[in-house]
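Open question from group meeting: does this chain pack into something compact, or does most of it stay loose? Before anyone orders reagents, we agreed to write out a predicted structure and look at it together. Recording both the input and the output here so the notebook holds the full record.
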Amino acid sequence: MLKMKKILSALIVVAIVGAVSCKSDEKTTAKQPTMSASIDSMSYAYGMELGRMLMDIDSMLNIDMVCMGISDMYKATPKLSLDEARFAMLKYKHYDNYERVQRYEKKFLADLRAKDRNYFATNSGLTYKIAKMGDTKRVPRTPKDTVQIMYRVLDGNRVVDTTYYRNDTLRLANGDMPKGLQEAARLVGRGGHVEAWLPSSLAFGSVGCDSLGVKPNTMLYYELKLIEVEK
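Structure tokens returned:
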């Protein structure tokens, strides 16, 4: 909700300041704006910053509709009320975008399993490959069980977090790990080593993780070594 309010505020502020002047494509050739004064350069700079912010939020946005929204707000003729705009954002984030993300994740993981037959899928959607089987009699079963792990987590090619650089282990409650990682740990047991792809629903979901820089609806890759399990 806080991020949504920031987006709305940014759009309104940019529109009022006159940061961006956007027009839809017309049959007649539109005259290109020129930066003949400092206010023009500043306005363009605001537009660049808004574009960068929106690309960071969602690169799938329809830029023509974004421009229309800014232009309409600047002219005080918005086609949606603020409540309607909030509803549209919530619907897209929690329903439309979620379904699109799910379709992408399912296809990606299906293609991965087709290319590498050592990968398998669980009913939850976790896709995993066991590098080393551990003691399956010593697995974390409850949220209060303590696990000692070495791990590496990737978002695409970006290393989100790892213990390997520190050559160290991490001790934490089983319940503090993402659901998909808990499931992966149960598959191999103490001493096991597993590679796992966590769909966003098994990672940090639609909330994401600010401390790790993980955006909402992000699928993650984990390499996990389960060193110890304590009841």
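Observations to bring back to the group:
Residues 126 and 183 are 8 Å apart (CA to CA).
The two ends are 38 Å apart (CA to CA).
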